[in-house]
């Protein structure tokens, strides 16, 4: 089966298959992609004959036919118009012309199977599984950020070897690596490497240079760079390129390859029918949609171009009850000893599968008198929903992979390569399961429905409340709970012999709710952090010492934040170890004082103070002189392009300034740093460690300045706050 597919300008298609003896290419010139047109409403009395006649006269249309298809999961087979197109790039424009060509009122017709990515469409329409039959070879090309400002590279890393010099030397090194490795996949630090290398070859007169396996085409540009906003967060999508015969993975524009590995990518390739290159740049929602489209295709259901599903009518009281998320028990701020964390395994996906929550069966007409969803009165049809068939194989596969990981780790000599493969696959499936719930409420989801989102939350609230009641009735005290996780400690008012065994109790709860409640971890102690300007507990900020291990679990505090410099993270983790070993906040302050002393003395390596922050708008869009703005000004001064949605890395050298001299970019030769600024960041990080014990920033400052003698007993504090 082909692992990558190329589309030439003249309409030919190249299928590339990886074999042990090298790549095999199959050339096709008979591929005609297809989209469909159907009445938007099943009750509409529309004759498609006129539209078919008009399309048959169109020069870009190869053929048309009327075929039976389902325009939706809730509709039976209907007569729809299938339109075969002579070139894949003409589908969208032809679909847009439906309104222009027809004389029907606007809104009466809808187009289907329009906005598929190219390789995915090809695999879907030709029933191709793009999972490679043999291991794919890779070659990595990377360029330092300082080289990205020009049209010619003076330095390039090829297969781990850094090459410097004139273009001819760099091009020769790349060509030699291509001949030695003959890679199926080019892993690039940025996709701009592809056009830049070919541009260098043209300037240097190196006529025989090419990254391509096909002699007639060096590379193709598939998309230009763009900036987008998702849930209030600005993102950047670099330009995308295609090299015939090789798949491209752009490290600056890949989620799954960055979060997992090639094994995780290939696992999803087999499930989504999206070949390696498209899978690498696809988002979680994009891949989930592809898996859903495959299921719809198998059921003869067409995929709408634009989502137009209306929200079912519901009275005001139901709207109020439905507009809630998962259940949350506010954490008890402070330090708690002997804490157990219990998690429901893949709670939302398992709710979908055990409760049959799916867009095609929620609030069905055939069971409208039933109250299947707790608190909302929604019915759920007895027919199996399509979403269950999408998710259940993924849930089962991940459970099997996790079991294989446990078995491998229990071996005397674990196979690290095998573990990396399994963990990559498990991680990829985890992200799909994480996204499946939220995608049901996404307005642009192809098959989502808000009532599914509401029903899943309703079931989740009931399940967590059931677990809380059972745990508390059996001698355990809940100190925190959020959506699918719950933290408990032995209730001091219940005698040990009257307290239920936690593993046995979790098993009973699992059987009752039909979703496995797993013992995630046992902690010697867990500390829940208060909010910055409040005594209330922060829902997702906590840290704890895993029992019988040197490991700390850390969530939400500076050590887990992507912008935190390495030095600050190391000091915070050191303070956690100190707190665990000494049971003394004063000892933690001692560690802080030593770190501050090193910082003031200039003994901290500058590369350990680099901050990384995301740019949310172009330079001219900022009105305040923030550190990001100073960094952007320096980047602009050096000819470096940093787009909204991308990260910028810098060291703060003088935070009192408001000009570009406030910071230095990470790649610059920085000789000094603003010790006062980083000292403030240190104090903030240590405050996160000590705030569960009643210490705030002013207390820490007074203690480090020797202003007073404050002695706190660790266990007294934990008892007072716990």
Largest sheet: 7 strands, antiparallel
Task: Give the strand tally.
Answer: 26
* Uncertain runs: 707-722
Name the structural class.
alpha+beta
Overall pLDDT confidence: 91
Q: What is the CA–CA distance across the termini?
A: 60 Å
- Strand line-up of the largest beta sheet: 17-19-20-18-21-22-23
Q: What is the number of helices? A: 22
Roughly how much helix do the residues carry, as a percent range?
Answer: 25-40%
Tell me the overall shape.
globular
The fraction of residues in strands falls at: 15-25%
CA-based gyration radius: 29 Å
Strand and helix layout:
Blueprint: E1 4-7, E2 13-17, E3 24-28, E4 34-39, H1 49-56, E5 61-69, E6 78-85, H2 91-96, H3 98-101, E7 109-112, H4 118-125, E8 138-142, E9 155-158, E10 161-164, H5 167-181, E11 185-188, H6 193-204, E12 220-223, E13 226-230, E14 233-237, E15 240-242, E16 247-250, H7 256-259, H8 262-272, H9 276-281, H10 284-298, H11 316-322, E17 328-329, E18 334-344, H12 347-354, H13 386-410, H14 416-439, H15 450-473, E19 476-482, E20 485-490, H16 502-513, E21 517-530, E22 537-546, E23 552-555, H17 566-582, H18 585-600, E24 611-614, H19 627-637, E25 647-652, E26 663-665, H20 675-690, H21 697-704, H22 714-721
Parallel strand pairs: 8-11, 11-16
Antiparallel strand pairs: 1-2, 2-3, 4-6, 4-7, 5-6, 8-9, 9-10, 12-15, 13-14, 17-19, 18-20, 18-21, 19-20, 21-22, 22-23, 24-25, 25-26
Helix pairs in contact: 8-14, 10-13, 10-14, 12-13, 12-15, 13-14, 15-16, 17-18, 17-20, 18-20
